[in-house]
Amino acid sequence: MEMIDVKILGIVDNYKKSDEYKTDWGFSVAISMDHYNIIFDTGNDPEILKHNMKKLNLDDKNRNIDLLFISHNHSDHTGGIKYFSNNFYLNNIAIPYDIDKNILELVSSLRNTRTMNIKSPTTLDMNIHTTGIIGEDIKEQSLVIETKKGLVLFVGCSHPGISKIIETVQNTFNDRIHFLIGGFHFYKLNEDKLQNEIDYLKNSDIDFIAPTHCTGDRAKNILKRDLAERFVEFGVGYKINI
């Protein structure tokens, strides 16, 4: 099977590369490959999304988006769905099966768009997969892309626990995780739990880790110190090539 190169660009995040972009409590990234392009989550505020899309030169209204991937049913990840549905051609949408009724009605009404209500691990295209829904309370899916260097794992907020998501990926896919990116939801953890999670990531065999969004400033600074060269800075305007 031919492996692919992946390019990642931050669109909406709590952090930014420069002052020309706007930050928000939310998350959205553009993922591009030779044969495919993906929007992972859509942020919270459509106006901030629109501003950053324009600054990043991603606002071409004739552009096709091969896959719009929604990690979970929280507004800081679903707030820009209408912006994308109104301004771009969406070929496929992968949403959790328990998505908000209004969002389901919106995406189901789109012509020439295939809507996939995700529950189980699913191959979405060549080398592109969803973990399926993980978690009991807040249900969440994560995106997995196979590359030459290993798996790239995109997480939204990691509500089920980042360790549980990682272990699910390791048990599902026959490859190691090369790159992990997204919100880890560490900002509410007490000292002991935070240290346990940080130790787990530090002791993992993941090559590079980009903690962002709801990870929290304190946890992010500790990870930057402890992960050393494995830590990758990310936010609006940051570009990563894998």
Spell out the key features of this protein.
Metallo-beta-lactamase, Chain A; seven-stranded mixed beta sheet; 242 residues; single chain; 7 helices; alpha/beta
How many discrete domains?
Answer: 1
Roughly how many Å is the radius of gyration? 17 Å
- What is the succession of H and E elements? EEEHEEHHEEHEEEEEHEHEHE
Structural class computed from helices and strand pairing: alpha/beta
Going by CATH, the homologous superfamily would be: Ribonuclease Z/Hydroxyacylglutathione hydrolase-like
> Can you tell me the overall shape?
globular
What is the highest CATH level, the class? Alpha Beta
Terminal-residue CA separation: 18 Å
Unreliable runs: none
What is the fold-level CATH name, i.e. the topology?
Metallo-beta-lactamase, Chain A
- Sheet of most strands: 7 strands, mixed
Number of strands: 15
Query: Which strand order spans the largest sheet, edge to edge or round the barrel?
Result: 8-7-5-3-2-1-15
The appropriate CATH architecture is: 4-Layer Sandwich
Mean pLDDT figure = 95
**Amount of helix:** 25-40%
Portion in beta strands: 25-35%
Number of H- or I-type helical stretches:
7
Pfam family, one: Lactamase_B
Domain Metallo-beta-lactamase: 34-100
Protein name: MBL fold metallo-hydrolase
Organism: Geotoga petraea
How would you sum up this structure, described in words?
The structure is a single chain. This protein is α/β, with parallel strands linked by helices and 242 residues long. It has a single domain, classed as Metallo-beta-lactamase, Chain A (4-Layer Sandwich), CATH 3.60.15. It is built from 7 helices and 15 strands. It has helices at 46-55, 75-78, 81-87, 101-108, 162-172, 191-203, 217-227; strands at residues 7-12, 28-32, 37-40, 64-65, 67-69, 89-90, 92-96, 114-118, 122-125, 128-130, 143-147, 150-155, 177-183, 208-212, 239-241. The strands form 3 sheets. Strands 8-7-5-3-2-1-15 form a 7-stranded mixed sheet. A 6-stranded mixed sheet has the order 9-10-11-12-13-14. Strands 4-6 form a two-stranded parallel ribbon. The longest helix has 13 residues, at 191-203. The chain starts with 6 loop residues before the first strand and ends with a strand.
